[in-house]
Task: inverse folding
């Protein structure tokens, strides 16, 4: 059942209840709804959500109260965004207020629904400021429960932790602040594993020792050796373990990251989900059979410690306003990092030119573990690819051609190794890094998170006929539809995400670049292309295709993307959270993007599926360790 159907069903029930309680004759309800009374009737409005436009139909009675809301949120993330749209609509109808809380984990969708409903109310002549000020009553009941192990977060790491702990005989509860399971792990394609049966079936000989050494060397030996080995050694068995609970995998045959094609350790380690949604559903059926209780829409509020500092459970805020106290022998924190905490991201990265397309987690788990004595060791945004800059100018012609990672055919230019310059107009990298999403974003971050690709009219005209250069296919890939690239470029200029000049001097002025730097970069690059040899940055001859010298000149702004965060508090190889003296904080464990030590910091190793592999396997180890601790108390 899609989200629209769910919302229609809910709203019909609410509407019927309103009519019965008010003594209405339901035989005339449609006639009443269709009357064009003051403030009455149905009003439609839209707002951009996480995946596209969200449209609402708001029906008011003749007193100006909302009696029905229908929401089309099919563009939003399945079971996360669409459930959030459902809940926001329900809360507004129930409370007759715009002051309802957004849904954790789906803030963008929630805000889009609220804004769309607000637009509809304005059209109806309603005082929306008064609606926003209406107090929403929450009368939740406080609860207290006792379990062996509490797992905070139902993403891949939390799910794996709960499954391992329950398998060991522990009584387990999961709390999840959103209304769905899976988190970023479910939205990904699969995960990293070495020496799996799938690899061996293909005759691949990928060794654990080699993989461990590669990771440690890439991380300049700043990562945790015992933790790295524990994760890699258990990765293949975790594939089979998850398959035994209904999560099926297949081994990637071809990589979309062309820089990895000659290195099996980089792409033949990627075990992809057959169907992640079905897999998570199967796992949670098993968890239910094991007696694991899952509490949705419950946000971590505090970590409980006794006088000795031993962790004894947590408290959580329920969506109804009540406080849930969970006493537990062991606590596993898997709250998904801090990708939505833009203040912290900016502080760590020293730039505002970063765009997140990951799950909105604010870092409450890491902060509360710090209060409990943990060390925030290496938490950092997971830099991964780049996108065209978002336009702040709205025009009718710019709506489809501007911004984003795969919206328009302009992404062919974005994902090509053209001439790249920094904000001053200086070339800064071998643009072949576009074929590796981690290195691509790293390069962009090295110049402040923002760069420009420079093309001329002749290049745009060539793309109109079909690009003469290899376009990367990583991530969602470029939109490879043929289009009029000169026209698209003009629309981007109109929207303020690209700049144009009939001369390089004009282009530099339009883009606020240093004219001498830009001219030097373009002249030097043209020489490199003509000589088919890049002695500056060693770009391949296959990518030295387009000079920049014929017709008008264009500069397109691009920004770095991060997919949530990686790293977190310091843990040991058992995923016990440790303090500054390397002593375990008794009863406290962390996994996934709350656990630190697997990375060195801002540079993400270019091994496909690494973050999700760490999530699943670290969660499993944390669950096993926590169960062993709880069973031996």
Result:
């Amino acid at each position: 059942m899609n989200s629209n159907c769910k919302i229609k069903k809910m709203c019909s029930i609410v509407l019927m209840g309103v009519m019965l309680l008010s003594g209405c004759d339901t035989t005339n309800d449609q006639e009443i709804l269709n009357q064009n009374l003051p403030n009455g009737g149905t009003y439609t409005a839209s707002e951009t959500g996480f995946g596209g436009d969200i449209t609402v139909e708001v029906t008011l009675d003749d007193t100006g109260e909302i009696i029905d809301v229908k929401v089309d949120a099919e563009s939003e993330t399945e079971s996360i965004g669409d459930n959030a749209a459902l809940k926001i609509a329900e809360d507004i109808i129930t409370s007759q207020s715009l002051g309802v809380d957004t849904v954790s984990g789906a803030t963008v969708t929630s805000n889009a629904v609220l804004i769309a409903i607000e637009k509809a109310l304005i059209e109806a002549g309603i005082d929306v400021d008064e609606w926003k000020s209406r107090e929403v009553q929450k009368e939740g009941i406080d609860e207290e429960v006792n379990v062996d192990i509490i797992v905070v977060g139902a993403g891949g790491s939390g799910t794996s932790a709960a499954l391992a702990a329950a398998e060991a005989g522990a009584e387990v509860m999961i709390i999840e602040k959103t209304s769905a399971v899976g988190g970023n792990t479910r939205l990904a394609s699969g995960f990293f594993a070495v020496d799996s049966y799938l690899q061996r079936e293909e005759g691949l000989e990928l060794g654990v020792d080699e993989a461990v050494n590669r990771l440690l060397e890439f991380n300049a030996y700043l990562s945790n050796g015992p933790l790295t080995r524990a994760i890699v050694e258990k990765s293949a068995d975790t594939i089979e373990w998850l398959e035994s609970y209904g999560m099926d995998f297949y081994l990637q045959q071809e990589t979309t990251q062309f820089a990895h094609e000659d290195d099996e350790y980089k792409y033949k380690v990627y075990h992809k989900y057959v169907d992640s949604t079905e897999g998570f559903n199967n796992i949670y059926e098993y968890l239910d059979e094991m007696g694991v209780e899952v509490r949705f829409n419950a946000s971590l509020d505090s970590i409980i410690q006794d006088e000795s500092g031993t962790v004894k459970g947590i408290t959580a805020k329920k969506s109804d306003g009540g406080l849930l106290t969970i006493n537990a022998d062991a606590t596993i924190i898997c709250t998904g990092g801090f990708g939505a905490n833009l203040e912290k991201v900016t502080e760590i990265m020293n730039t505002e030119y970063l765009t997140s397309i990951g799950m909105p987690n604010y870092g409450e788990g890491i902060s509360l573990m710090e209060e409990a004595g943990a060390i925030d060791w290496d938490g950092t945004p997971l830099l991964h690819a780049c996108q065209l800059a978002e336009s702040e100018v709205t025009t009718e012609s710019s709506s489809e051609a501007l911004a984003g990672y795969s919206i328009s055919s302009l992404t062919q230019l974005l994902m090509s190794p053209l001439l790249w310059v920094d904000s001053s107009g200086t070339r800064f990298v071998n643009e072949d890094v576009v074929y590796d999403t981690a290195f691509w974003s790293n390069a962009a971050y090295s110049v402040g998170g923002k760069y420009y690709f420079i093309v001329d009219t002749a290049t745009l005209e060539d793309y109109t006929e079909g690009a003469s250069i290899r376009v990367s296919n990583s991530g969602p890939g470029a939109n490879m539809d043929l289009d009029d690239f000169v026209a698209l470029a003009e629309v981007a200029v109109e929207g303020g995400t690209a700049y144009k000049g009939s001369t390089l001097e004009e282009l530099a002025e339009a883009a606020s670049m240093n004219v001498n730097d830009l001219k030097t970069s373009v002249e030097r690059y043209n020489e490199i292309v003509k000589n088919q040899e890049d002695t500056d940055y060693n770009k391949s001859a296959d990518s030295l295709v387009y000079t920049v010298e014929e017709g008008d000149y264009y500069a397109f702004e691009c920004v770095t993307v991060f997919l949530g965060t990686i790293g977190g508090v310091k843990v040991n190889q058992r995923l016990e959270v440790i303090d500054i003296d390397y002593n375990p904080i008794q009863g406290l464990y962390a996994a996934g993007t709350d656990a630190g030590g697997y990375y060195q910091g801002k540079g993400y190793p270019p091994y496909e599926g690494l973050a999700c592999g760490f999530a699943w396997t670290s969660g499993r180890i944390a669950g096993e360790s926590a169960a062993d601790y709880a069973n031996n108390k």
